[in-house]
Design a protein that fits this description.
47% of the residues lie in helices and 11% in strands. By secondary structure, it is an alpha/beta fold. It folds into two domains: 216 residues, Aminopeptidase, CATH 3.40.630; 322 residues, no CATH class. The strands form four sheets. The protein has an eight-stranded mixed sheet, sandwiched between helices. A three-stranded mixed sheet has the order 12-14-13, covered by helices on one side. This is DUF1704 domain-containing protein. InterPro entries: MATCAP (IPR012548). Keywords: Hydrolase, Metalloprotease, Protease. Its cofactor is Zn(2+).
Length: 610
């Protein structure tokens, strides 16, 4: 008993000093605080052995796992929780156990005090938003001061401070099958991750409402034993991603020559495109990807990020294996999506409204060529470097690409490229202010995928890039027509039409100049069919809705993310894992903010038409 008292005193001292600790409590029990927080997850494993709970407990920032049935849990818990109240003003304890047979709900949340009702309702709502959890019920028992009727063993609430909030989670083991309790691993993982996400959100809500602290005060670090695995997986995913450049591999190397031949043949012969040699074996990369033990990561948000990226890389490998074949288009539809009728209608409306602003039939008088454009782009890079001296990248003039392309933070410009001077600033903000800025900001994150791009980042990224053009006053009607024309071209292709049919449609019906129509058709039909070009307009439309809802635009520049990742990003920032953006693009500063304010009050995409 003296040893117990001594160990308990040491724990209380660590809590007071905010020291991280992992403590073995003989003979088989363990208390872990990866950070001292006013929260404790209790799992009495001796009473409720459950494979999901055994994994869930490890994902919590602070937990007490009890294997010894003889342990008096209250003797240990009560002093610790009272110490929390002294340090933080309040604390939350959540206990979980396996439901008894016959429970209909996936999870019952048990409470015995009214002061915990609001936070229990919040947890219930979070759980119900998860696809893997069907039904949640809150069970209230205020007739007793003990949790004897609520949980497998008692914690005497009358011995605890009224600022200690207790909830019990009675969980139906739907991830165990039959009388022999066969584990369904995917169901178990989804269930565990759903509960972990909900508990994390509830913890921060509890801090915000019930404690003297602010949620931002708690930058929860992950268990040290998990970190090496997380970094290892991140590095290996990055290594596999950097073995190839997807866009360069699927883009023709002879686009300009193909255009000249196509024009010479009076637009009647399908051009022949040439592609770079394949420097990788997709099967080997797939094998390497699925050798990663992502299932061993306990943080559900990080595991989701990695699993999602692995799936995208897998699909891209399948696309590269099918380059030039029908399977490439099917893969593109999986990775980049398709054009639906609603998006097609908006694209057609834009083309109709701007029909009188069709492309100029004569050359612009003031044209900027590749070398001058490169110098102007370098000036923008110098502006960004003034924000962070560590920032640095290059501009390359190349003869094996068509147009302008950012690749791994480097601006590549075709030596044959030219553009009207009034479009220069818009294109610089598109390529440098968006693609390079998000690459560099993503590079400052601990995980590589934020600079390489999370799966499906292209829609938000291209939408943001086009928005940049608008904010600096360079989104012309002709530019909008091209974005809308790309949507029409993708839709036309996915309906089974040929290269020549799509080219003719753009020229004859929508009045695009032949060279512009060729470039749009080439981009859409490259490698067998790439639907990516429809993302520019769809991403812009979604981004306008995002702005109109009053949400933070700066957050979108922290890396190459997609919109439904934002809650994950915010959570990981709150945990201190991800960092705020280092660079701010020019289009999010004065005087361009006025255009952003006006956009919030606008009617949408059609407001951008001049």
């Amino acid at each position: 008993m003296k040893d117990n008292a001594k160990q308990l005193a040491a724990i209380l001292k660590k809590i007071k000093n905010k020291e991280v600790f992992h403590t073995q409590i003989p003979p088989k029990n363990k208390m872990v605080f990866n950070q001292v927080v006013p929260y404790l997850f209790l799992y009495r494993q001796f009473f409720s052995p459950d494979p999901m709970l055994a994994e869930l407990v490890k994902s919590e920032p602070a937990y007490f796992r009890v294997k010894d049935p003889e342990m008096n849990v209250s003797d240990w818990i009560a002093p610790i929780l009272n110490q929390f109240v002294e340090e933080f003003g309040a604390c939350l304890i959540i206990e979980a156990w396996t439901a008894s047979p016959g429970q209909q709900e996936d999870i019952q949340i048990h409470i015995a005090r009214k002061n915990v009702q609001s936070i229990a309702q919040y947890l219930g709502k979070q759980l119900e938003t998860e696809e893997s959890i069907a039904k949640v019920e809150i069970v209230t028992d205020t007739k007793t001061n003990a949790t004897q009727s609520l949980s497998p063993a008692s914690i005497q609430l009358d011995k605890l401070n009224s600022n200690i909030l207790y909830m019990g989670l009675e969980i139906k083991p739907k991830y165990l099958l039959g009388a022999n309790q066969q584990i369904l691993p995917i169901d178990l993982r989804h269930f565990r991750e759903a509960i972990s996400r909900s508990l994390s959100k509830t913890f921060f809500e509890f801090i915000r409402i019930h404690t003297l602290s602010k949620p931002t005060s708690f930058k929860i670090s992950h268990p040290k034993k998990m970190l090496p695995l997380a970094w290892e997986i991140d590095q290996k995913l990055a290594r596999e991603s950097q073995r190839f450049d997807f866009l360069l591999l699927v883009t023709p190397t002879n686009s300009y020559d193909a255009w000249l031949q196509f024009k010479k043949g009076n637009y009647r012969r399908v051009p022949v495109f040439h592609y770079r040699p394949m420097p990788i074996d997709p099967d080997i990369i797939k094998r390497n990807l699925y050798n990663l033990h992502i299932e061993d990561l306990y943080d559900p948000s990080i595991a989701y990020l990695f699993r999602d990226k692995r799936k995208e890389l897998d699909q891209m490998m399948s696309m590269l294996s099918e380059r030039g074949k029908e399977g490439f288009l099917l893969g593109s539809m999986q990775v980049f999506g398709t054009v639906n009728e609603k998006l097609l209608e908006k694209a057609q409306a834009i083309l109709t409204i701007t029909a009188t602003d069709r492309e100029h039939q004569t050359k612009e008088e003031d044209v900027v060529y590749a070398e001058e454009f490169a110098k102007l782009a370098q000036e923008e890079l110098d502006y960004l470097k003034s924000q962070d001296p560590n920032f640095g990248t290059t501009v390359r003039l190349r003869d094996d690409i068509y147009g302008v392309m950012v690749n791994q933070g480097v601006l590549n410009i075709s030596k044959q490229y030219s553009l009207p001077r009034h479009r220069v600033q818009a294109l610089i903000q598109h390529e440098v202010g968006t693609h390079i800025v998000t690459y560099y900001n993503g590079k400052q994150q601990p995980f590589s995928l934020f600079r390489l791009g999370v799966p499906g980042y292209e829609k938000l990224q291209e939408g943001l890039a086009v928005l940049a053009e608008y904010l600096v006053g360079g989104l012309t009607n002709n530019r909008l027509r091209i974005l809308a024309g790309r949507v029409v071209a993708v839709y036309h292709m996915q309906q089974g039409n040929t290269f020549l049919d799509t080219f003719a449609l753009l020229v004859d019906k929508y009045q695009f100049l032949p060279e512009t129509a060729f470039q749009m058709t080439m981009r859409v039909f490259r490698s067998g069919g790439l639907t990516k070009d429809a993302l520019y307009l769809s991403g812009l439309i979604e981004l306008i809705n995002y702005i109109k809802s009053g949400r933070d635009l700066t957050l979108l520049t922290m890396g190459k993310i997609r919109e439904d990742y934002i809650p994950i990003v915010e959570e990981l920032m709150l945990k201190g894992i991800l960092n705020a953006p280092v660079l701010t693009p020019k289009y999010l500063t004065s005087p361009y903010k006025d255009a952003l304010t006006n956009l919030k009050k606008s009617k949408g995409i059609f407001q951008m038409i001049q």
